[in-house]
UniProtKB/TrEMBL annotation, chain A:
Keywords: Amino-acid transport, ATP-binding, Nucleotide-binding, Transport. Belongs to the ABC transporter superfamily. It comes from Methylobacterium aerolatum. This is Branched-chain amino acid transport system ATP-binding protein. Residues 18-246 form the ABC transporter domain.
From TrEMBL, chain B:
This is Branched-chain amino acid transport system permease protein. InterPro entries: ABC_transp_permease, BCAA_transport_permease. It is found in: Cell membrane. It is a multi-pass membrane protein. The chain crosses the membrane at residues 12-35, 42-62, 68-87, 99-118, 149-168, 189-218, 230-259, 266-285. It comes from the Bacteria. Belongs to the binding-protein-dependent transport system permease family. LivHM subfamily. Keywords: Amino-acid transport, Cell membrane, Membrane, Transmembrane, Transmembrane helix, Transport. Its main location: membrane. Pfam families: BPD_transp_2.
Length: 246, 295
């Protein structure tokens, strides 16, 4: 039915790729997420801003399905994932780059790179990843954790790009890195954006986030308390300072 | 008669060979324990009982089905492995979120049940299992007589240990295993079916025990208590090598077998305790074990 299809298509175009609704989350007994609402459209870069302990990392862990207990709704491409095992969520095309980077010490750099299985067609080839991050090629045989912090971050991002995941959950990729490396990571995220990747970025450094993001969600005590389009960030700078306590 | 340090060479090499044979069993058994502990965090006390089960399956295959040693060498590990897969799925998988102690208690209980069932059925006097005709006899070396079957046990154990090590260190499958040992949650978040890995790893680990049981059947008699006797020593081997260290468990297994053999020559009174003395010393000096990584 072409008419029905036509009616549906505008709605489909504006429907978020990733929709988080009323997300509650727990670490053991402690209730840390109290109703998170986030929309991410395909091709967008959004950031989650907030103080330490506000629930940014927990939100990413809930989305990829590795938080012990969660309630509410998380849909990806319209598929409800709240009751899914994380390995199935990953297969939908979500890639996760954890805050601690998660490089395996018992694996070489190359083995780390090849570890995550392909979840969708169209992932980068190893050669493309090596072009993006030449250090990973030079040090392919080294033990994964012998890399510098910046190289480990590149490896953590690179191995996800191989899998074909088109949505990347990126937890504080610049934490503790030298400014020149931060710039390189920034350029990479920029490049991924132009290639159509959707990115959810947790950042403490909103100056860095400002150069990349379309929208910012401010999280406080397990709730989204504000949503700021990137264009309005400077106008809201005082408010943001209050939120982040900087 | 030739002597070394006042000991006849015949006796020395004889005991060293015996030590190497015991070391072969220590190595295969502690390798399985180390793999299981590394990935599942389960101290598998049922390992000795499953080793005994391997020997019994070999005996049953011969007695009830007329299938000889070489069949048993392939089939018994498979039977024990499948039995292990069922144990893991039905019982052990429920304990991963709890303390180590629960896994230890559960598998200890399982060991007692399995041993009890076999003891009830077959008694404790032991059942004979003949050396396969192809490996009967031996070689007269200049310094000692080497029974073919014993040489075969050492070679087969070494081959299995090296093959297992190669799979773990050099293949994609092994990379998953190593990664999941370090951080199962993250590996799962990449889309890997980690629970399936845990099940297969347990199955493989106990299949190694079953394999060792078949190797042991012609040397020791097939006896429901054979696992209980060896497993305590094997746990000491694992502790000395370092919990979860693959290469450590193999090297330590062979080395401690030799140490035990040497002790029998030079100070027989200590031969049954020497491994435990070493365990105490290692724990005092290097609590993570000789090859263990301190967290």
């Amino acid at each position: 039915m072409p008419e029905a299809a036509q009616k549906l298509s505008p709605a489909a175009a504006t429907a978020p790729l990733l929709a988080v609704r009323g997300l509650q989350g727990w670490y053991g007994e402690s209730h840390v997420l109290h109703g998170i609402d986030i929309d991410v459209r395909a091709g967008e870069v959004v950031t989650l801003l907030g103080r330490n302990g506000a629930g940014k990392t927990t939100t990413l862990r809930a989305i990829i399905g590795i938080l012990g207990r969660r309630q509410g709704s998380i849909t990806y491409e319209g598929v409800e994932t709240i009751g899914m095992a994380s390995r199935k969520i990953a297969k939908l095309g979500l890639g996760y780059v954890p805050e601690e980077r998660g490089i395996f010490s018992s694996l070489s750099v190359q083995e780390n790179l090849m570890l995550p299985p392909r979840v969708k067609p169209g992932g980068m080839t190893v050669a493309e990843i090596h072009t993006l991050f030449p250090n990973l090629k030079e040090r392919a045989g080294s033990q994964g954790t012998k890399l510098s912090g910046g190289e480990q971050q590149m490896l953590a991002i690179g191995r996800i790009l191989r899998t074909g995941a088109k949505t990347i959950l990126l937890d504080e990729p610049t934490e503790g890195l030298a400014p020149v490396i931060v710039q390189q990571i920034g350029r990479t995220i920029q490049k991924l954006k132009t290639q159509g990747y959707t990115i959810v970025l947790v950042e403490q450094n909103f100056r860095f986030a400002q150069t990349l993001a379309d929208r910012h969600f401010v999280i406080e005590q397990g709730r989204v308390v504000d949503q700021i389009p990137n264009a309005d960030l400077d106008a809201n700078i005082d408010k943001l300072h209050t939120y982040l306590g900087v | 008669m030739t002597t070394i340090f006042g000991v006849p060479t015949q006796a020395l090499f004889g005991q060293l060979l015996l030590g190497l044979i015991n070391g072969s069993f220590y190595a295969i058994l502690s390798l399985g324990l180390a793999i299981i502990f590394g990935l599942l965090n389960i101290i598998n006390f049922a390992h000795g009982a499953l080793y005994m089960m391997g020997a019994f399956v070999a005996w049953m295959l011969l007695t009830y089905f007329g299938l000889g040693y070489w069949w048993a060498l392939g089939l018994a590990p498979l039977v024990v492995g499948v039995f292990g897969v069922i144990l893991e799925r039905v019982l052990i998988a429920r304990l991963y979120k709890l303390d180590h102690l629960y896994g230890l208690l559960l598998t200890f209980g399982l060991a007692l049940i399995i041993q009890g069932l076999f003891r009830n059925q077959y008694g404790v006097s032991g059942l004979p299992y003949a050396i396969p005709a192809e490996l009967a006899g031996g070689q007269r070396l200049p310094f000692m007589f080497l029974p073919n079957y014993r040489a075969w046990v050492v070679v087969a154990s070494l081959a299995v240990c090296i093959a297992t090590w190669l799979v773990i260190e050099k293949t994609k499958l092994g990379a998953y295993l190593r990664a999941a040992t370090e951080n199962p949650t993250l590996v799962q978040a990449f889309g890997v079916n980690v629970p399936l890995f845990l099940t297969l790893t347990y199955g493989f680990g106990v299949a190694l025990a079953g394999f060792a049981g078949v190797l042991a059947a012609p040397i020791y008699s097939v006896n429901p208590n054979m696992g209980a006797d060896i497993i305590i020593v094997v746990f000491a081997v694992v502790v000395i090598g370092g919990m979860g260290s693959i290469i450590g468990s193999v090297i330590t297994g062979f080395a401690l077998g030799l140490v035990e053999g040497l002790t029998k020559v030079f100070y027989p009174e200590a031969s049954s305790t020497v491994i435990f003395v070493i365990m105490v010393l290692v724990l005092l000096v290097k609590p993570a074990g000789l090859f263990g990584r301190t967290a």
